[in-house]
Every structure is written in structure tokens, then in C-alpha cells.
């Protein structure tokens, strides 16, 4: 077990001597308050252009990527890589960060984070540190949001192809069947397509999809269905 925020703070202090470079990295990744700042916001603070901020950020990331420094994060990379492997090689960004943040709250857990005290800020800083670790890790690739998928992190392109195949299959199935399915039913059908499919992998592939979602009762269907995403009182009453 490790504390991402503490580790990143130590690595920043060791790798970067220039305070402005260190501050730019901290602001870009939200290491101070958990809120990532844009190039423009940081540029206004220092009276420099967005491009200059981008250059400073790049130089800071280069320093953090030096072999001596990056080796300090090997155990962190291994931990995250194993987590992704357990979930089919990819994870929706929001879900991945939430999954991993329990590292910072091993006892209380995410559900007990209290917005009224400092724990919410600590939660945000932990996620920011994890995001920087993901950015520095060579095994990890971030895929931007698309029409089909939410933003995600992956350790191989094959997992994205598998996820797309699974999502396309179930999207066609839902269009024909016109009814929701429980996860166990989806899993049985997924095993027919890929006998090696695990429950965690299928859950991850469905979670990253924009086409398929689950309602409050755990039933899956097309995201635009009122049974899945009720938009008004009548839809909600029907769902209940």
C-alpha cells in the first residue's frame, strides 16, 4: 500500500529544483487543492503565454521521467497495471481514479469522505497524484472521450478493440430485444463471444461505454432508454 500524494510530493522535491517549474506541474495536475488549472490560468498568474506554460510543463515532466526518478514509482506502476489487467486491460478514467483512491482512505473508504471537512480536499489531491502517476507511467495510455467511449486508461490497444466488439454486440442485441438485462444475463452472453471473459472485464467494458448503461436497479440497456435514464416524473414513475 502507498500514499500517492506523499510519494509525488517527495519525487517533485527530488527531481525539480526550479520552484516555478514545480509550481506549474502542481497546478496543472491539481496537486495543491485537487483542481487542475488550464494553461491560460497559469499563464495569467505568471504573465506568460499558454505555449510557454506548456513548455515549462513539458520540461518538468521530462525531469520526472529521468530513470533515477521514475524508478521510485515502479511499485506504484505495478499496482495500477495489475488493477487494469484484472479489469480487462482498461478502465473508465473516473472509475479508475475512484477505484484507486481507497489507497488514501483504506479504513474510512470513499463512501465516508465528508464534504464538510478536509477529507474531500485530501480525496481530490489523492486523485490528482494518481493522475500524474498514470501520466508518467509508460505502460499507461489515456484515450480521450469519443462518441462511443468515456475517457479511459488502458495498458494495450487490444483491450479497446475487445471492448468495442462487446459494446457493439450488446447494442445490437438491445435494439432487437427491446428489454433490459441483468448483469448475469449479459455475462452469460459475453462468455459465448469470448470464453475467457471475466466479470470484472465485462463490467469495465460496459462502464466505459456511452451507448450502454445501468439503471438504479442494476438492469442494463441502451443509455437513451427511459428505463435506463429517466428524464421526467413519468419516466421515473414507470421505472419504479
State the distance separating the first and last CA atoms.
42 Å
Which band does the percent of strand residues land in?
5-15%
Structural class: mainly alpha
Oligomer: single chain
User: Averaging pLDDT over every residue, what do you get?
Assistant: 89
Per DSSP, the total helix count is: 12
Biggest sheet overview: 3 strands, antiparallel
Radius of gyration (CA) equals 21 Å
Morphology: elongated
Spans with pLDDT under 50 lasting ≥5 residues?
235-240
- Total number of domains: 3
How many β strands by DSSP?
6
Strand order of the largest sheet: 1-3-2
* Relative helix content: 55-70%
User: H/E series, N to C?
Assistant: HHHHHHEHHEEHEHHEEH
Task: Please provide a written account of the structure.
This protein is mainly α and 240 residues long. The protein folds into three domains: 4-69, Arc Repressor Mutant, subunit A; 72-143, no CATH class; 156-222, Arc Repressor Mutant, subunit A (Orthogonal Bundle). The protein is 58% helix and 8% strand. The chain is built from twelve helices and six strands. The strands form two sheets. A three-stranded antiparallel beta sheet has the order 1-3-2. It has a three-stranded antiparallel beta sheet with strand order 4-6-5. β2 (141-143) and β3 (152-154) form a beta hairpin. α7 (93-101) crosses α8 (119-136) and α9 (157-177) crosses α11 (199-208). It is elongated, with a radius of gyration of 21 Å. The model is unreliable at 235-240 (pLDDT under 50).
Amino acid at each position: 500500500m502507498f500514499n500517492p500524494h506523499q510519494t509525488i510530493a517527495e519525487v517533485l522535491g527530488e527531481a525539480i529544483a526550479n520552484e516555478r517549474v514545480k509550481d506549474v506541474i502542481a497546478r496543472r495536475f491539481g496537486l495543491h487543492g485537487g483542481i487542475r488549472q488550464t494553461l491560460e490560468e497559469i499563464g495569467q498568474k505568471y504573465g506568460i503565454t499558454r505555449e510557454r506554460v506548456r513548455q515549462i510543463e513539458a520540461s518538468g515532466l521530462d525531469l520526472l521521467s529521468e530513470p533515477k526518478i521514475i524508478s521510485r514509482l515502479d511499485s506504484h506502476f505495478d499496482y495500477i497495471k495489475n488493477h487494469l489487467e484484472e479489469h480487462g486491460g482498461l478502465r473508465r478514467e473516473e472509475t479508475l481514479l475512484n477505484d484507486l483512491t481507497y489507497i488514501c482512505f483504506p479504513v474510512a473508504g470513499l463512501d465516508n469522505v465528508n464534504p464538510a471537512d478536509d477529507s474531500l480536499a485530501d480525496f481530490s489531491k489523492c486523485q490528482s497524484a494518481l493522475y500524474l502517476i498514470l501520466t508518467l507511467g509508460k505502460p499507461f495510455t489515456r484515450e480521450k472521450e469519443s462518441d462511443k467511449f468515456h475517457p479511459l486508461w488502458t495498458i494495450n490497444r487490444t483491450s479497446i478493440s475487445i471492448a468495442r466488439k462487446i459494446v457493439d454486440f450488446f447494442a445490437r442485441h438491445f435494439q432487437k430485444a427491446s428489454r433490459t438485462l441483468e448483469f448475469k444475463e449479459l455475462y452469460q452472453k459475453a462468455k459465448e463471444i469470448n470464453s475467457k471473459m471475466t466479470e470484472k472485464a465485462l463490467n469495465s467494458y460496459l462502464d466505459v461505454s456511452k451507448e450502454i448503461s445501468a439503471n438504479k436497479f442494476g438492469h442494463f440497456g441502451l443509455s437513451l432508454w427511459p428505463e435506463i435514464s429517466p428524464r421526467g416524473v413519468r419516466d421515473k414513475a414507470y421505472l419504479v
